[in-house]
Amino acid sequence: METTPRADRARRIADVLRPQILAGAYETLPDERALAADFGASRNAVRDALAVLVAEGLLERRRGVGTVVVGERHRHPLSRLAGLAETLGGTVRNEVRLARPERAPAAVAARLGTDDTIHLERLRYLDDEPLSLDRTYLAGDVGRPLLAADLAGRDVFALIEETTGRPLGTADVTVRVTTADAHTATLLGVPEGAGLFAVERLSRLADGRPVDLEYLLVRGDRLTLHAVLDRR
Amino acid sequence: METTPRADRARRIADVLRPQILAGAYETLPDERALAADFGASRNAVRDALAVLVAEGLLERRRGVGTVVVGERHRHPLSRLAGLAETLGGTVRNEVRLARPERAPAAVAARLGTDDTIHLERLRYLDDEPLSLDRTYLAGDVGRPLLAADLAGRDVFALIEETTGRPLGTADVTVRVTTADAHTATLLGVPEGAGLFAVERLSRLADGRPVDLEYLLVRGDRLTLHAVLDRR
Fold first, then answer.
1. Final residue before a domain boundary, out of A69, A84, A106
2. Band of the pLDDT at A207, cuts 50, 70, 90?
3. HTH gntR-type domain: which residues (chains A, B) (predicted)?
4. If both were cysteines, with which of A57, A86, A108, B198 could B176 make a disulfide (CB 3.0 to 4.6 Å apart)?
5. One domain for residues B23 and B87
6. Are residues B186 and B210 in the same domain?
7. What is the pLDDT of residue B2?
């Protein structure tokens, strides 16, 4: 069953290097000779593997320096319900592209239990670089006070808890993969076709009432999701 | 702050329809007139939104039928540690592309605590369609008995528990987004550039010893990940 064409050999190296690079294990990659020894592979196989990772935008070849790691990813836990600024630090800012009362489409109304909603669209920046495009529908009574709040600087979760005086409880999260169309790519500052997380998140107040339905498009080159799973 | 060019209006519809489609809410989409009424939008905006979703490969226009949903996604919980066949039913088969003892590269050895490993590469099919390309490094003593086991038909988790007689405990999971290079695309049966989940998963026996390090490339058009998050 074993097949070992050239592309397979390169893949075996790239698959192991990719998460190392993304986890921040390297600033500059070890040279080809060292990698070949580590992987018990030929230097040609290492070169092919690095070419795959350069094409994915994870590495860049720099003359006189070697192969360097491009970009940085931020870790987001998939265990606790938390906003971006809470999780990643205080360097988040939001460009508010839309904030208005709106009769929700049926799919949204069914999940929030009302078609009286506040519709927010925010382009979120982390360290002055776009991270995600967030579409949020809030139940009208919960969302209306937020129209006067600091939507540019604060997480919606924190604002909901402050204005309602009640804590949030749980959220159902669905994570999908998509790629950026031309318009999304322009907004998020990535090439057309770049990989994105498409996250749908329905958050409830502690009493179980759903109040916040979000559709997030998050740059795949800037975020990783983490979870601890249990066998039982 | 509000900007509403044509592309923004289309996006507002596409962002809400996308997860509905992926969750299996429709076989055939409601017609443009009905969608326009539901979203309080023009038919032009609906048409633009559907064009975005056709380009993403979620919808197809069929003459005389309308706009139909293409493909189907399988739900995978991000809360319990489970193999593919256990989670998705009995229709999984694996093409074993590699299964051999190997001295692990340093990055793998550091996580498994040994460089004596069994290296598996499997192309996994669900309902006779490729789903993921799984690279697995097993600690040698745990993995060696699996070389004689039914790797084509069974999940590695179940095989580990059977051959060691010990249950698995927890796993650390990291989920990233990547896109398919030409070689991966061919193996997985997707267009070059298609969105993929890149999953790294380190599983431990119940006593805490790490024994199974996996690098999975999973078709983004066939899987969604689900989690319930808690605010506390």
1. A69
2. very high
3. 3-72
4. B198
5. no
6. yes
7. 40
User: Does residue A11 sit at the B interface (CB-CB below 8 Å)?
Assistant: yes
Note whether A88 and A58 are same-domain residues: no
Residues of B in contact with A7 (CB under 8 A): 183
| Chain A touched by B87 (CB under 8 Å) | no
Residue B231 in any domain: the answer is no
Question: Residue B84 has what pLDDT?
Answer: 67
Using a CB-CB distance cutoff of 8 angstroms, which residues of chain B are in contact with residue A110? none
Q: Does residue A97 share a domain with residue A164?
A: yes
Using a 10 angstrom Cβ sphere, with 0-12 exposed, 13-18 middle and 19 or more buried, the burial of residue B226 is: middle
- Do A51 and A126 lie in one domain? The reply is no
What gap in Å lies between CA A95 and CA A126, rounded to an integer? 11
What are the mean pLDDT values of chain B's consecutive 10-residue runs (232 residues total)? Answer: 68 88 82 92 93 85 82 68 67 92 93 96 91 94 96 92 92 90 92 92 94 94 82 72
The per-residue pLDDT for B95 is 96
User: What's the CA gap between B59 and B61, in Å, rounded?
Assistant: 7
Please tell me what DSSP assigns to residue A27. S
Please give the mean pLDDT across all residues of chain A: 87
Last residue of a domain, one of B69, B86, B106: B69
The first and second tokens of residue A160, run together, are 């909901």
Q: Does B207 touch chain A (CB under 8 A)?
A: no
pLDDT in tens, A55-82: 887 888 888 877 888 766 677 776 666 7
Q: Is residue B113 a contact partner of residue B210, using CB atoms and an 8 Å limit?
A: yes
Q: Are residues B215 and B147 in the same domain?
A: yes
d(CA A173, nearest CA chain B) in Å = 5
Q: What is the per-residue pLDDT across A157-193, written as a single tens digit (0 to 9) for each?
A: 999 999 999 999 989 888 889 999 888 999 999 999 9
Helices (H), A56-104: 84-88
CATH number of domain containing B213:
3.40.1410.10
CATH of the domain at B37: 1.10.10.10
Which domain range does residue B120 map to? 74-226
Residues B51, B122 share a domain? no
Token pair for residue B52? Answer: 């975005």
Structural domain count, chain A:
2
Query: CA-CA distance, B93 to B130, in Å (whole number)?
Result: 9
Q: What pLDDT score was predicted for residue A8?
A: 86
Residues B192 and B112 in one domain: yes
How sure is the predictor about A1, in pLDDT bands with cuts at 50, 70 and 90? very low
For residue A48, the chain B residues in CB contact (below 8 A) are: none
